[in-house]
Specification:
Layout lengths: L1 H6 L37 H45 L9 E3 L5 E3 L10 H6 L6 E2 L4 H12 L7 H10 L1 H9 L14 H16 L7 E2 L10 H9 L3 H6 L11 H18 L1
Antiparallel strand pairs: 1-2, 3-4
Helix pairs in contact: 4-5, 4-7, 6-7
Length: 273
């Protein structure tokens, strides 16, 4: 799937456009640099000021185009390395990732290009080697996972499941023919993981018994500002714990939005004073 996108020049997620220079550079006939200085008393000052502004804008546009093209080249190389690694491993039944522990005790995979903590493309390509039955709640969490990948992660878990169920036809169409119809999966925030999840949800439903369906797809979970979670838990801080989802709420809390609201309130108060 990713290789087809790359070969057809379709830019999506980690797969940038295959064109060497997508961003056109500023034409060579851009304005010449005006003199370094013209006195305000000079009759040509107004024209000089306008020429200088045009020159600065042209130079900035040129630099942005150059930087954008450099970024795209880097993305193409990164995508090529990921896909190359995936091609080499695709016929293996199991692969292993060596890990490194940092000074905090956190474990990170050593391979830099393709690993389960990598980008959307990397995560969308990798599954567990040993599948397990979904069990009673497995399909529920697959639907939650898909909603998260689509950007609907600020709702309650039940609402996220409803979001996925409301899009069941889109999910089925995406799983059946990713390049046909509306290609709904491409509109998701994490398209490659979303497509993999679409296929797994449909396979589970069509199996006739989702609870016994053998699933190997990871469902990613993340903490809410882990440092504050630890501080709130250690200090039995109810207010802080609520802000980082240690206290049960109907919808997920966002501590960063809370900080923004506090700052906005303080600024408003200062203006009133």
């Amino acid at each position: 799937m990713a290789i087809r996108l790359r070969d057809e020049g379709i830019a999506l997620g980690d797969i940038p456009s295959a064109v060497d220079f997508d961003v056109p550079l500023v034409p060579a006939d851009r304005p010449e640099k005006p003199p370094d200085f013209v006195s305000k008393d000079d009759p040509d000052y107004i024209q000089y000021k306008e020429d200088m502004q045009n020159y600065i804008l042209a130079v900035r546009k040129h630099r942005k185009a150059v930087q954008k093209n450099m970024d795209l080249r880097s993305l193409r190389c990164s995508a090529a390395l990921k896909l190359n690694q995936a091609q080499k491993f695709k016929d293996f039944t199991e692969i292993y990732f060596p890990f490194n522990l940092d000074f905090r005790g956190r474990a990170y995979p050593i391979p830099p290009h393709l690993n389960h903590l990598g980008s959307d493309l990397s995560r969308g390509l990798l599954t567990f080697a040993h599948p397990k039955p979904l069990g009673k709640n497995g399909l529920y969490w697959l639907k939650v996972h898909l909603a998260n990948l689509c950007g609907a992660n600020k709702m309650s878990f039940d609402d996220r499941v409803k979001y996925s169920e409301d899009n069941l036809e889109n999910i089925r169409n995406s799983a059946r023919d990713p390049f046909g119809g509306d290609m709904w999966w491409m509109s998701c925030e994490e398209p490659f993981q979303a497509l993999a999840t679409c296929k797994e949800i449909i396979n589970a439903i069509d199996s006739g018994c989702p609870s016994t369906y053998l699933c190997s797809l990871p469902v990613h979970m993340d903490g809410s500002c882990n440092g504050l979670q630890h501080y709130a838990a250690l200090g039995r801080d109810t207010v802080g714990g609520r802000a980082v989802n240690l206290v049960s709420e109907k919808v997920p809390q966002d501590v960063y939005v809370g900080v923004m609201e506090e700052v906005s309130y303080v600024n408003m108060f200062e203006l009133l004073v």
